[in-house]
Every structure is written in C-alpha cells, then in structure tokens.
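Hi all, long-time lurker, first post. I run a small reading group and we've been trying to get comfortable going from sequence to structure in the token notation. Rather than ask abstract questions, I figured I'd post a concrete chain and ask someone more experienced to write out its structure so we can walk through it together at our next meeting. Sequence below, copied exactly:
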Amino acid sequence: MNLFAQVARHTAALKEKGYCIIENALPAETIAALDADIAPRFHRTPFCEGGFYGATTKRFGRLLARTPHAEALVRHALIVSIAEQILLPWCDCIQLNTAQAIALHGGAPAQLPHRDQDMWAAAKGSAEYLVNVMWPLTPFTAENGATMIWPRSHAAAALDPDPKEAPVAIEIPPGAALLFLGSTLHAAGSNRTDDVRRGVIVGYSLGWLKPYEAQWLAYPPGMARNFDPELAALVGYRQHRPNLGNYEGQCPSVLLGAHFDPDRPLGAIDALRPDQAELLGRLAGNSPPDLSEPK
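-- Answer (accepted) --
Happy to help. Here is the structure in token form:
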C-alpha cells in the first residue's frame, strides 16, 4: 500500500474511533537502540510527584537531545502526514508538542482518565488541537499498564459527561505505534507486574498553540543548528503565518545560520498566508479588495 493510501486509511480510523494502530511502524532494532541510549537517564531520573504524573512513574523530555534515534520517531513520514491531515484544517503548520520518555514501575496505579486537549482553555468539540503517538519501548500488555483508550470518546463526544464505550487496553509490541487524538479519553493502566513498562510519547499540535514542552528551551539554537532543516522547523524554528513566532520580524530559522550575528540589525519581512498576500496585491494594484472569508 502506498503512502497516500496508508495516510487516508489511518486518518479515517482516527476520525472514526479516536485512535488507530500502525503495526511495524519502525524496526524493533531502532526502538531497542533508543531504549539503550536513554536507559542511564531513566536510572538517574527521580520519580514524579503529584497524583496525575504518579509517584511510581518516571518521565523526562528533550529526547532529540538525548538519542539520535528519536528523530526516526519524531519525523516518521507516515505519522507526520497523518497528523497534518488531522490538524492542518485549523493551522498553517504543525509543531512538535512533546517527545517524552515514560517508565511505569511495578505496582503503579491506573492514571486518571483525561484528554490532552484540556491543556488549552479553548472551545472543544470541533477543532482538534493535538495528535499523540505512543511508542512502546517494552511490550505493552493489559497487566503491565498498557495505554487505555475509550473508543469514540473524541471530537463532539468529548463534551458528553460520560463515555459511551468501555476502555480498551492497547496491547502492542515495540515497533508498533498507537495514535490517538487530543480529544480522545485515555489513561495509563495499572501495572500489576514487577516489571517496568517503558514507552515514548510524541505529540504534534497546532502550530499556533503554546506546546507542552518549551521547544526553544529544550533545543536552543546552538543545538538546533545541527538539526535537519525540517526537524528544526518542527521544533519551532519557523513562523506560523501570518508573522507568528518571529525573531526580530523574521523567521526564527535565521538564528540557525552558520554566520548569524546577534548584533546585526534585521529588517522585518512579511510572512503572510496566500489569501492575505493576494488581498495585499489587489490593494497595491488599486483593485477592489475581496473581503469575503478566505477560501
């Protein structure tokens, strides 16, 4: 099946059920190498504090700075294309919301069911704000705390007081990927084993939202300068038209130039949507402007 067909199939499943599973999204060897790279960090990281994160759970972000294998997850072509299909109706470009590793230790209780879109105090029920991807580093089972998903609890159903369907434990091996919408009710299950359940959550959000992880702090210019330009753009080194997220009136990618001089004055440069540029061109040509809604 070609990429276009795969994107269409998984996007349709997300819209219908609020989640989908991509089998064999990455080789298990890639996931194992990433897991090995971040194992020392898991060991050093303290347990979380608070009832939501959980006192038997460890979390840390900045994965693109910790292992080169994280880029394969963050820039997965199929998954990024699916996220764009879901999110681009409400934004000019998407952004990385988080890339975080999570370890659920034995005896951990089930997490509070929640919707990640509730991070943002905005209207719910129509627009989608976020697409999440859970990547298991160890097998996810019902016994060790696999992610629980409430099917069809998304979109307008997120406004209902109670979900209409029972939750499903998503049992998947390393190499598979679980995608779910920011409006989908979900939670980590309880870990009823003595083993540690490890995974990585990668999220993509609307480009004009404040992301969960402060990307410019996680990946400052000196680090992002070594990123592929598409990856740098995904973590925030691009403007969201019109002119949002600029540096001195220019695209923040200017910070990544090899000869960037912070003392050199910059002139602001328009970064407009096509409909705005067209309107500006009509005004400049003394043609009557079309003030109707953008097509």
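A couple of things your group might point at:
The CA atoms of residues 90 and 158 lie 18 Å apart.
The chain has a mean pLDDT of 95.
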